[in-house]
Amino acid sequence: xxxxxxxxxxxxxxxxxxxxxxxxxxxxxxxxxxxxxxxxxxxxxxxxxxxxxxxxxxxxxxxxxxxxxxxxxxxxxxxxxxxxxxxxxxxxxxxxxxxxxxxxxxxxxxxxxxxxxxxxxxxxxxxxxxxxxxxxxxxxxxxxxxxxxxxxxxxxxxxxxxxxxxxxxxxxxxxxxxxxxxxxxxxxxxxxxxxxxxxxxxxxxxxxxxxxxxxxxxxxxxxxxxxxxxxxxxxxxxxxxxxxxxxxxxxxxxxxxxxxxxxxxxxxxxxxxxxxxxxxxxxxxxxxxxxxxxxxxxxxxxxxxxxxxxxxxxxxxxxxxxxxxxxxx
Length: 329
Description:
10 strands
């Protein structure tokens, strides 16, 4: 009887030991589909980056990734949804300068904190802006435009895709640092702004370089400057804002980076898994080619470099927006 009981205990112990790796295998991340939240409607930079990364990251992880568009209040609804989602690695956010850096300065009661509520997985691509002028505007460059604006405050106008949009904030920062006053004309989206720019009813407009390129190459508008730290390959003859010198010693540059983020309390091992597989996607020549053809600049940054870039832009633009007094409404 005693030997029988001993045998039973040994078998039970072996079964328990064998069950440990089995249980681990059953719960290993990821064991179900993931979601990438795009905080804007389909189309545009957020959506494009989200879908490129979803398809390729899903293959790396061996799980499907569903792209879910959650627009509302600009980018607030979708971004806050991820901030408050279960921190299990199954809900990811497409984060950008717009929803993580600019919003911090625009909204007094933002429901999330970009630096404390999210963890960066990786930055994939960035896009600079191009400042365009209606083609019959009688200034040869941005310096001439600023010189005129200084002696004629309120005589020139600038369009944006809406109050608090990247186009609005960047332009407002430029005019503030240059010490000039232009009239802001907000539109509901970039398409309406282009209609009035091409029709000569508004004088200048900032837009993402890939979209602006179509109008610049067609000769419908004139490019005055680009917003990146270096010249944009799509407009090699167009100077950067820094090169124009119109902002003096305050160097103004902005590129709209895009990447993936998770809620800050996501387990470290899950973050590491996602980062490792996402890095393979971002570093692949195929992904880089897709972003380049779409007018973007592929980013191949180390994690500490990417985190430093995000923090720099959040802190810099929060301070600058509050100084200028730009409002989302």
